[in-house]
Specification:
It contains 17 helices and 15 strands. It has 445 residues and is α/β, with parallel strands linked by helices. It has a single domain, classed as L-arginine/glycine Amidinotransferase, Chain A (5-stranded Propeller), CATH 3.75.10. It has a three-stranded mixed β-sheet with strand order 2-1-15, sandwiched between helices. A three-stranded mixed β-sheet has the order 3-4-5. β6 and β7 form a beta hairpin. α16 runs antiparallel to α17. It is globular and about 65 Å long.
Length: 445
């Protein structure tokens, strides 16, 4: 039976904007209120998806959230027609309004945590949407994310969907951005690695002082229980609090894994050696390739600016691994030199492919942020909603859809335009038909 890892990339929504909402995310804050290009962002994302498809990878697409979120604004006391709600909220509570217009669902690494069927007690693929409680603008996503996932992975014979964890900071969960999986083969049982930033119920443990630790140990443990994971194939590692305070808001900004490779920065983890020893012990007799990047080779700030570790490591059909990197890595001399050297070493990584995802990078997310990984058998792939899997025809349809509905340029002030709301709803209503998703958005219900 064939096994593959499918990358489901988030489709950038029609209201892609730079509102600077994410405290602790350096790129997001530094580009706050700049003009964005929703059309360029969506087309860049689609181009990356199609390129991976053309490399022989199985590639999927996930729908965006509907923004502005008028239902939330009404829950917060703004009343009247849609136009009146937009006007009131943008004038009387501009910070709240901008949060309800967030474009952040494009980073589907935060959409959910996924455990493949080879790891779970019931032999199904498990999905738990992330509650994203640390940021108000992201905490608005889980319910619709759950509907999108259920419409994409709807066959109950193969897929098991859970509700997101309780909406409380004690169970703060940021999804796959703090989770990775190592395995000998995608269809074989692997080691699931959960990286957390703090202990929610024990204030005496190490924790960052400047920026928030968004993922708690208790949330990670709860997801492992929900997914029916074995203690002998699960590892919980604390992220280094000092790198969180340097702007490493998720683990996927400082490390990434694929099959028998863990690519990580020297400063990524707290108590690193014990964590790596546990991973190797639970992985089994085959050697894990622990690829460490030292601080004197690539300082943490260079890793953050270029998103060296927010790259995708993929296994190509020929069995070799390649890194999918943003062009920012190519433009940074230290990082580019390191990557050129990396592919000459005796590791499974043999190539680097650079992609322009600047619209995403400026808002604080690299290639790895844009995708949710799902390891699947060929039977499970066949059970997915086929309209959400990339093909030449799907690529053409989605490009036509973007060019028809998206604006070339958008400012934060444009978000209160009632015409944009109507444009967005028309676009998303058409998208749900293109992707065969049903009525997933509140305005469709």
């Amino acid at each position: 039976m064939k096994q593959v890892e499918v990358n489901f990339d988030g489709l950038v929504g029609p209201t892609h904007n730079y509102a600077g909402l994410s405290f602790g995310n350096v790129a997001s804050l530094s580009n706050a209120k700049a003009f964005s290009s929703p059309k360029q962002a969506a087309l860049q994302g689609l181009q990356k998806m199609k390129a991976l498809h053309d490399m022989g990878m199985t590639q999927g697409v996930l729908a965006p959230q509907a923004r502005p979120d008028l239902d939330t604004l009404r829950r917060l006391g703004f009343t009247g027609s849609d136009q009146t709600v937009l006007e009131q909220a943008s004038k009387r509570a501009p910070e709240v309004f901008r949060a309800c217009c967030s474009a952040s669902s494009m980073w589907t690494a935060n959409a959910a945590t996924v455990s493949p069927s080879a790891d779970t007690a019931d032999g199904k693929i498990h999905f738990t949407p992330a509650n994203l409680t640390n940021k108000f603008h992201r905490s608005l996503e889980p319910e619709v994310t759950g509907r999108i996932l259920q419409a994409t992975f709807s066959n109950e014979k193969y897929f098991n969907h859970h509700a997101h964890l309780p909406d409380n900071e004690h169970f703060g969960d940021e999804g796959a951005a703090n989770h990775t999986r190592l395995c000998t083969d995608y269809g074989h049982a692997g080691v699931e690695i959960f990286v957390y930033g703090r202990h929610a119920f024990d204030g005496s443990k190490p924790a960052p002082k400047k920026y928030p630790a968004r993922q708690t140990l208790e949330a990670s443990q709860a997801i492992a229980r929900l997914h029916g994971l074995s203690d002998e194939t699960t590892v919980f590692i604390q992220q280094n609090p000092d790198v969180i305070d340097q702007g490493v808001f998720h683990n996927d900004v400082i490390s990434v894994g694929n099959q028998n490779v863990l690519f990580y920065h020297q400063e990524a983890f707290h108590d690193t050696q014990n964590a790596l020893d546990e991973i190797q012990r639970k992985f089994g007799q085959q050697q894990v390739h622990f690829i460490r990047v030292d601080t004197d080779i690539v300082p943490v700030q260079d890793a953050i600016k270029t998103y060296l570790f927010n790259t995708q490591i993929i296994t190509l059909p020929n069995g070799e691994m390649a890194i999918i990197a943003p062009t920012e890595c190519q433009e940074n001399e230290r990082v580019a030199d390191y990557l050129s050297h990396l592919i000459t070493l005796n590791t499974p990584i043999k190539a680097v492919h650079y992609f322009d995802v600047k619209q995403s990078m400026r808002n604080g997310g690299g290639p790895a942020c844009l995708r949710l990984r799902v390891a699947m058998t060929d039977q499970e792939v066949a059970a997915v909603n086929q309209q959400t899997l990339m093909s030449d025809a799907v690529f053409k349809r989605l490009n036509q859809w973007v060019n028809k509905h998206y604006r070339e340029q958008l400012s934060v002030d444009d978000l209160r335009d009632p015409a944009l709301l109507l444009e967005t709803r028309a676009a998303l209503d058409e998208l749900t038909q293109l992707l065969n998703l049903g009525s997933i958005y509140p305005f469709q219900r």
